[in-house]
Amino acid sequence: MRKNPLTLVAVAAVCVAVAACNREIKPDHKGGFLVQNEKLVELSAVNVETQFTPEGFALNYFNGEPTATVRTGDYLILYGDYKPYALTAYKHGAGFYEQDSSKASASDAITVGPMKGETAMFKVRFTKPLPAGIYLLECTLGKGSIGFPFRIE
């Protein structure tokens, strides 16, 4: 059976073009990341703690500062055994950030899906605009809770 060299060259060109199209930005170590303008920004992880109000209501809080600002078109990458379960608004408290109980959970504003060709990386996309403020993507990690805080301006 005789093969046409032009056909082989065309098939090779298509394979190279398809491989070149999958140039997604991917982190090289585990953690939470923001993809902004084709650049990868590492998000600081914070422990999510719980305190009780005098009325007996539980409020989550975290120490630390949000290190990134999310803009339209940005998305997050979680690399590791993180299981996101909530996107919650927070407000500045006395030396820490506390859950803003006046705002509903914004978990319906995100979708979480696997990254192509990766089993331990997940892409978190924003499905609708969020009001300006501080947000925490809360995840389980093992038996504890960890969060990735960020700002929206």
Write the H/E string, N to C: HEEEEEEEEEEEEE
Cα shape = globular
How many whole angstroms does the radius of gyration measure?
Answer: 20 Å
Q: How much strand?
A: over 45%
Structural domain count: 1
Helix content percent band: 10-25%
Q: Compute the average pLDDT.
A: 86
Oligomer: single chain
Annotation, overall tally of beta strands:
13
Structural class per helix/strand content? mainly beta
Low-confidence stretches: 13-21
How would you describe what is shown here?
By secondary structure, the protein is mainly β. The chain has one domain. Helices cover 11% and strands 46% of the residues. The strands form two sheets. Strands 3, 4, 5, 6, 8, 9, 12 and 13 form an eight-stranded mixed sheet that branches. Strands 2-1-7-11-10 form a five-stranded antiparallel sheet, with no helix packed on it. The longest helix has 17 residues. The radius of gyration is 20 Å and the shape is globular. The chain starts with a helix and ends with a strand. 19% of the residues are buried. About 6% of the residues have low confidence.
Brief descriptors of the model:
five-stranded antiparallel beta sheet; single chain; 1 helix; mainly beta; eight-stranded mixed beta sheet; 153 residues
Chain-wise SSE layout:
Blueprint: H1 5-21, E1 31-36, E2 39-43, E3 46-47, E4 49-52, E5 58-62, E6 69-70, E7 75-79, E8 83-92, E9 97-99, E10 110-114, E11 121-126, E12 133-141, E13 144-152
Parallel strand pairs: 6-13
Antiparallel strand pairs: 1-2, 1-7, 3-13, 4-5, 5-9, 7-11, 8-9, 8-12, 10-11, 12-13
